[in-house]
Please model this.
Amino acid sequence: MKTEAALLVQTGMPLVVAEIEIPALKAGQVLVEIAYSGACGTQVMEWRGDKGEDKWVPHCLGHEGTGVVLETGSAVTNHSPAICRRTSRCCSAAPRRPGWAPSTMC
Model:
């Protein structure tokens, strides 16, 4: 599956809108269609290059978002069907409780 995303490709430069591949879900992940996302002050500093070299470039900014859960991994047994409170560029947060989905999927 593919989607369009605004990517930080180089610090201090405008974000680049590009089509990206959405990876297959791992067992404890959820796929969320993001409706709204924000970039915090720390991410603005990251974009400007104030935090030094970014070893994750290219990547999406925005980890404070909401959206609709589209799909769940095989180990997810309980989740909020309509809301994801946060996203993360690393997509690796652990579930808060066994069987619950972490609210992270870029």
Q: What stands out?
A: Helices lie at 41-48. Strands lie at 2-8, 16-21, 30-38, 59-60, 64-72. The chain has a mean pLDDT of 76.
